Amino acid sequence: MKLRESIVDGLVDVRTHKMRTFLQTLGVILGVASLVAVQGLVDSGRRQATKFFSEFGGLTKILVVNKPVKETVVTARQMASDGLTWSDALAIKQEVPFATQVDPIAQAELPIRYGDYERTNDVTGATPDYTSVYKFYPARGRFLIPDDIESHSRVCVLGDTAARFYFGNEDPLGKILTISDVGFKVVGVMKRKEFYFGKGDHNALEWMNRQTFVPLSAMITRFSGDPRRRVQYINVMVDKVENNPKAAMAIKSILLRRHAGVPDFEVINRAERLRQRAEQNQAFDIVFLVSGIISLIVGGIVIMNIMLASFQERIREVGIRKALGALGTDIAAQFLVESILVTSIGGTLGLALGVGFAQAISALIGQPAIITMKMALVGVIASVTVGLFFGLYPAIKASRLNPVEALRYE
Amino acid sequence: MATPLPEDFKGPIIRLEGVRKIYGDGDDQVQALRGISLDLTAGDYAAIMGPSGSGKSTLMHILGCLDVPTDGEYHLAGTPVSRMSSRQLARIRNRRVGFVFQTFNLLPRCSILRNVELPMLYGGAGRAERRRRALEALGKVGLAERARALPSQLSGGQRQRVAIARALVNTPSIILADEPTGNLDTKTGQDILALFGDLHRQGHTVILVTHDPNVAARANRVVRIVDGLVASAADGDGGGAGH
Fold first, then answer.
1. Between 20 and 30 A from A329 (CA), which of A99, A190, B62, B226?
2. Of A230, A263, A296, which residue constitutes the final position of a domain?
3. Is the CB of A404 less than 8 angstroms away from the CB of B119?
C-alpha cells in the first residue's frame, strides 16, 4: 500500500479518536516544546555573546598579554626578557601574514587635572589602529593620527564619560588637560559605547567611555620613560576566523624567539575563548536537553501504551486487511504511519508552544527572542523519531497477527 | 469477468488431496481436517455444509489461503499452494479470492467507497482507477449512491452487498462466502443469495459455507463435511448454472 493511503487511513483514525490522540500527544507536545525553547534560548544567548564580542574586536581578534613567570627565583634568562614591547608588535605585524592590524597598548592610572578638578583615571597609550579594532570612533574632533605617534604629540582624545568628568558642559576641544603635570591638548571626544545584557542597566562597555587616549609614543616617553618601550597588551586582528589558530601559533613562536625563550606572555584566541565559554555553558544546556528528551521518552511510552491498549479493538481490522491481501509490511507501515502522524501533530503543537516559551522567557530576561529554522528542525526530527521508535513495537506486533485468529477476534 | 486461468490449465480450479489441519500439539491436539480430498471445477456453485465444529470454516480458510494445511496438497488453478510464502499467499488472497463473511467485516470508520477500494490499495491500482472500479462494483450491488456513507449507516443487507462489491472488485476467480446470510433476515438473505446466483451465472466460481439446507439447495455442488472428513460431495438438487 502506498504511503499516501496509509496517511489517509491514519487520519481517519486520528479524527475518530480526538481525545485519545490528544492524550497521546501530550508528552510529545511538552517534550518538543522544551527542546525547541532551549534551542531558541541557546541560539539567542550565543548570538548576543557574539554581538558583544564584536564590539571590541570580534572573533578575529587575538589578544596578547603579559604573564608573570610564576617561579620564585628569577633566572638570568628570565631577566633577559622585557615582557611585551612595542617592537614585538611591529615584529608581529611584519611576520604574521594573517595579521591585518596590530595595536599595542600601554595603560596606566595617572592623575588628570583640568583647572581645579583633579582625579586619577585610566590613560591609554594607543595607535591609530585602535579605532577600527574597537569600532570606536570620534564623535567630535579626531582620533590619534600617525603623525601624533611619530612626533610624540601632546594631544589627547577623551571618552564620553571622561570628557564629562573634566569639562562638564564645557566644550573640551582645544582645551589643555594636565596629565601627570604634562599638558595635553584635547583634539577629540569619542562616541559613547554601550552594550546592555538583557534588561540590565549596567553598561558592559562603560570602561571604554572612561578612557583618555594619548599617542603610544608620548605615553612611553612622557610617563614611563622606558627605553625598552614596554606595553601592557597587543591586539592582533586576523583576516578571517579560520586563520586564528595559525596566527596564534605564529605569534607565539615570534614572541618566544624575541623573549629569549621565556614564556612571559599569553596569547588569547577570541574564537577559542568563545568555544570554551560555550563548553562551560554546556552543562546548563544539557540539563534542559535531557529534561526535554525525558519528557519525549515519557511521551513516547504513553503513545505506545495507548496504542497497545487500543490494540484489541484493531485486531479484527488487521484480520480484515490481511484477508483482502495486505502484507505484514503493509500493516506495520500503517501502524508506524499512524504513530508518526500522532507524534507529528504533537510536534507541531509543541513547536508552537516552544516558540511561545522561548519568547516569554526572552521577554522576561530582556534578551531578544529569535526563531530559527533550527528550532523547527529540532521539533520535527524529535517528534518523528519518537513516533518511529515507539510505534515500532505495536507495528511489529500487528504485522505478525495470524489472519484467521485476527478475523475470529471478537 | 473473472480473472482468466492460465492458458494451458485444463484441470479443476480447486484440487485438495488428503488435506489435514491440526491445531495445537501434544495432548491438546485438535484435528480440524482429517484428510480432505475434493475437486471443484471453474464455474461451480458449491455449498460446503456441515454441523458446527465439523471443520467447514477451517476448510474455507484453507481454500481462501488465509491458512495453510498441516499436511496434504492444495492446488489452486494447478498451482500448489501448501508451501507458499506468506507474501505469495497474501497476493492470492488479493487477486484470486474474494471473501464474504457472516459478520460483513467492513472497516467501521471508513466510508463504503474506501472499504470497496481496500483490496485495490493492496493490489496497487491507481487512484482514478480505484475510484472507478469501486463505484462500478457498488453499482452492481445497487449501492453506488451510498458510496460516502459509513457502514453503520447501512442496513445489514446493504452491508453484505458492500462486502460482496469488495469481494468482486479485484475480479477474483473464486468467491468464498462464509455463512453470508447468517446475520440477515430471510427476505434479505434471499436477495443476497440471488446476487450469488447472478455471480455464478456470470461465470464466477462461488463457494458458500452454510449449515442451512435451503441455502445449500441453490448450489449445483454440495459438499458435506462431518468430523473433518468429506461425507458426500454430490451434485446439488437446487438451481445451478443455466437452470
1. B62
2. A263
3. no
Closest alpha carbon within chain B to A331: B122
CB distance B73 to B80 below 8 Å: yes
Find how far residue B179's CA is from the centre of its chain: 10
Cβ–Cβ contacts within 10 Å for residue B136, how many? 14
Q: Which domain does A166 fall in, by range?
A: 68-263
Domain membership of residue A59 (yes or no) is no
Both A114 and A251 in a single domain?
Answer: yes
Question: Does the CB of A322 have a partner CB in chain B at under 8 Å?
Answer: yes
Closest CA in chain A for residue B62: A404
Do both A250 and A364 map to the same domain?
Answer: no
Q: How many CA atoms are closer than 13 Å to the CA of B109, on its beta-carbon side? A: 14
The ipTM is 0.91
Alpha-carbon A206 to chain mean position: 21
Domain count of the fold of chain A: 2
A323 with A296, same domain?
yes
